[in-house]
Amino acid sequence: MAFLDIEYNSKILGMERRVSVIYPDASEIDPDQVDDQDIPVLYLLHGMGGNENSWQKRTNIERLLRHTNLIVVMPSTDLAWYTNTAYGLDYYDALTSELPEVLHRFFPNMSRKREKNFIAGLSMGGYGAYKIALKTNRFSYAASFSGALGIGIDGTDLDAIPGGSRAYWEGVFGDLKAPGVEQHFLTTMVAESDKKTKFYAWCGEQDFLYQANQVAVQKLQELGLSLEYQHSPGKHEWYYWEKQLEYILEWLPIDYQPEERLS
Asked: Is 14 left (phi over 0), alpha (psi -120 to 50) or beta?
């Protein structure tokens, strides 16, 4: 496989941006499974403090995908929560409207079909994966690992979430007490969804986001989302997220071929 670090100019953000891409090598894939015309794609999102290289640096993602015909796109939102921020940088638009078109110029055989487009993320990226799936209706599967799914809907004020000051949260989401802040809650976004996406969530039982996940998942299920939820002993750590990455590679409708199966 190839690992590509692409730098491009984002007109929406007005700056140079980077995105990491794993591209499958046909020579390492079962010839019966190679489709060079319509390759499925997984967008894989980082958490707070991460960037486009986090998954490649902290997991064995390249080994896991060595024999699988799947493009993996790993963008960066900095600390902007995959959101059009109150401070004026439209990260959501840049990632959902601009980046796919940039990538299709590099990889014209990357599938545009909903049934072959997937998205997943950890922590902040879990929130981002659900948000993008709900608002765009362009993904058939969406997964969250230790996701910050409870933002605004678990009874916790945004400025009480670990990881930032009130000034930080208001820079991202705007006035936390003003009417309209609900637009950032996943429960509000369900109204924009056609509810055709299959969702998955996992959270460790020792994770500081565990209770928030319990509340958020129940509410999202009550609103009609097809959402599979699992929890097990675990912390907010990469050891568990790598295991969940393996799980969703089996869960997605792709011909996943772990390395040991072909050794």
From this structure: left
